[in-house]
Amino acid sequence: MRANPNIIITGTPGVGKTTHAEALAERTGLKHVSVNQVVKDKGCHEGWDDEFLSWIVDEDKLLDALEEENIKAGGFIIDWHGCEIFPESWIDLVVVLRVDSSTLYDRLTARKYPEAKLQENLDSEIMEVLLQEARDSYEERIVVELESNTTEEMESNVDRIEAWFKQWKEDHPVVGGDGEGGGH
Ligand code: ADP
Fold first, then answer.
1. Domain that residue 119 falls in
2. Is the model's pTM score more than 0.90?
3. From ligand 1's centre to the CA of 21, what distance in Å?
4. Mind listing the pLDDT tens digit for each residue in 115-145?
């Protein structure tokens, strides 16, 4: 039993995960966990890939680092371009952000992605790789696909996830009301 839910925000790089996660953290009080940052800070990798300009992630080390943060206790917004490594029992909602190819192209070009990485990510978005990963890894009822092309869409997404959070809190009252769920 968690006093607060865990939400995954996933999608291809550039879809708006960080922007959504930060806005949501502010609205809900949940803690934003940038998994890329954890990989970097805790050394959960086997080195740097020069072609793709990203860390080669060691998933076992990453999962250990997240266990240390006690993620499964709840209260986190997990922001990463992947979701299958997180145990199903940890997760209450999986948001997959989606974007049109031309918008993604502009966002990744602005980040000066090298050609191979740009193309790989555009292909991944078109092939719905992250959406499929989410659907393969979690129950259908907790996976939500949301568009993130415009600021208006982002605001509406954040409103919607905040409403989901409030409903979750109503549905999971803390026993004893002391915030610990201790069952007095
Ligand atoms: P990610 O964390 O998925 O890589 P970011 O949150 O860093 O994506 O967003 C990438 C860029 O796109 C940022 O410049 C951000 O301001 C912009 N952006 C993200 N989502 C939207 C949106 N829904 N509407 C307009 N701009 C967006």
1. 6-171
2. yes
3. 11
4. 999 999 999 999 999 999 999 999 999 999 9
